[in-house]
Each structure stands twice: as C-alpha cells, then as structure tokens.
Amino acid sequence: MSFMMFCILFFSGIVVCSVAAPVEETALEYNYNVKNKRSNEESPVSHLEKKLNETQEEITKLDEMMILYFEYVFRTIYRLTGPRFFSKWKSSSIPYMDHIDEFSAWDGQQMRQYIIATSSHWQSVSIYQNTGEGLRHSQTVMIPWATSTKNIKINDTVYIAVACHGSQGTEKIGARLYNWTFDEDIEGTLTQVQTFNETNEITFGKTAGEFFITLTKLNYYFSQTAPVASKVYKWYPKHHQFNFFQSLETVCGIKPNFFDIKGNLFLSITCGYNSSSSIVNSFIYRLNGSRFEIFQAIPLPNSIEIRDLYHAYVKPSHFLVAASVNGPLVVYRLSDFTGHFEVFQTILTSHVMALDIFSIRGEYFMAISSWDYKPSIAADPHAKVAVYKFSGSTYNLFQVIKTFNIPYSVKVFVDVFSNSSMMGIPQALTIDLYKWKDRSNK
To answer: According to the UniProt entry, where is the signal peptide (predicted)?
Structure first.
C-alpha cells in the first residue's frame, strides 16, 4: 500500500467517526426521554381504575342529593296532603255531661249543626249550636235519669230518642222521643212526641225506606237469669210515630246497634252478666222479611262482658268491634268463606267506656275512650281517648289524647263550617272539641 492510499484511508476513518458519533448520542438521548416519559405516565388499567373511582364518587353524591330531594318531596306532600293529628280547638264550660251526640237540620235558609249533651247529674238534655266559633246554648229539657241520646232524620225532620236508666219510686222512667223543629223566629225547639216503657239503651236503624228503633231493658227487680224482652218498633208514616214490631228475648240486654250489609239490616244486642255471675252470649239478628231472626251468637273470649258491639265498614270488609269493661277490645270480621263474623284482632285495653267508628279522606279509624285504674295512683286514673287507624291488615294505635277526667263518651263528626272532622269529648267541667288538621284548615 502506498503512502498516499494510507493517508486517504486514515483521514476517511476520522471523518466517519466524527459524523457517526453525534448521531449515536442523539439516539441514546431520545431513547432515554421516551423511557422516562412512559415511566411517569399511568398504565391503562390504573387510568381506568382512577376514572371508575371518580365516577363512583359522583354517583354517591347524586345518591345523597336524591335522598335529600325525596325527603323534601315527602315532607312537602305530607305537609300539604298528609293527615295530622286531632288538635284541641275549643273548650266550652258545660259541666257534668255524660254523653254527647251531633245532628244537623235545615232551618229553611241554611244548615245548622248542633251538639246534644246529656247529663245524669243535672237529669237533663241540652242542645248547643255550633256557630263556627264555639258552642251556643239553644235549649235544655229536664228528663229524669237521662243518660244518652240517638237521632235520626225522617222526611227532613230530626227525631231524638233519649235513653233513661232508673226509676222514681216504684215507677220506672221510660225512654222518650222528641223532634226538633224551627219556629217563626228560626229557633230550634225540642218537642216530645212519644214515650216508651224500656229504660236502658236505644238506637235507630233504617233500610229501604223503613225506619226502626230498638230499646233494651234491664230487669232491676228480678233475677237477671230471666229473659227480659228487648223491643223493636217500626215507623208508621200514617201515625207519625213508632209502633211495636217485635220482641227479642235477651238476658241483661245492654246496648243495641243497627248496621247494614249489602242492603240487609242487622241488629246487634250486647248482653252482660246475669245474677249468677255467669256469662251469656251477645247476639246478631238479621231482618228477614217481617221479623228479625238470630243470625249469629257472638262468643265472649276470656269471659269478658261486652259493653258495645259496633259495626265498621272498611272497604271491602265488614267488622264488628266488641268493647268490654273488663277485657280487651275484640275485632270480628265477616268471613267470605263461612258467612259469619270471626275473631280478627285483639287490642289490649281496659275499662272501655265508649267508642266511635269514622273515616277521614278514605282512611278508617276508631276512637276509644277508656281509663286504667291503679290503686297506687287512684288520683290519676290514666283517662284517655285512643285513636286507632286501619293499616290494611290490622288496627294500629294512631294517637292518644289524655283527658283530665274519665271520658264517658266520644263522638266524631264533620264540622259544617270547615268541612273537617271534629271530635267531641265530655269532661267533668267542659266539653272539649278537637279538630282534624289537614291542608284545608292548617
């Protein structure tokens, strides 16, 4: 190899090396930067997990917002349409009343509403008008041993029957029938139109244009084991009075009640202890053509004495509520299978004095006045009115109204002014009125 060729090859190698070196350094730097950037970035799985966590947090926040929204909607709907409890409206100074009832009558210009207050202490029946602001006295009639009333409207005339317990000397005080009419000054007046011999309890019933009245009679002077007739009277328009219709043999008949089931008129009569302290059944009668016939005997579970047997219609079922002095409240339901009333529910309570069945805006209730006596606290008998609501399967406690004295009566009716339900409870010195609060009368 010549010297010249050697020099050419030597310098060519230097040039090649000097050009190649920067290219290799740039490639190495690029590879390093790419690797470093990838190490700082998340993997696809980690990125997806992060997004999922963020989405879950958003869902949780939305759930919390929805809960708050539904709670707000519920509170708003409940405030606007939901039921509220009975709250005290007025206390009228009307002392020593045992029983209250209610009726409405047209005076030729407007509908008037009245409260009937019966007092065995004063031996009187008093009529008070509901003015929308309270009760205003209209009339008082002195009736010995008056204890309770029932009323019915026949051809636009209101008839009021007064039950009496007791006697004057050897003369027994019988029940009396009054009508309520308006004079020229549009003032209502009670006028006696008929008397009866029976002395215990009284009630009205109607079906297909026919009107009945039933009276029970206690045997004060003879053994209670002997049957004592409860009597049924029927309204005769021609005579404008009730005429005798039928006798029903009962032992210590206490309280009668009429009720209608699918156009059939039924009559329940509760019976109590006889003189030998044994228990007798209460009976349900059904009007069959020209007379009432026994439909079913109601047994007395746990040897209780039934004070009242009250019909309740809770669509589509029919119930009977048996109230007793010394035992629980027993609810019977008419069985579609047997066609008779069978025990449906037992409600633990004691010393039931009265009850009333009513409905408010398609919901079904019953009000029970009672008291619990404990010798250790005799001054506080734990008197109350308990309101039960039908839930669809059972009656459940809905509200308790504590009272200062034992309430011997409770009546729920519709106030003609506010069109809301009102409850009347007689006390020792007052008649207390409670109004049902809803969106129409906040």
So the answer is: 1-20
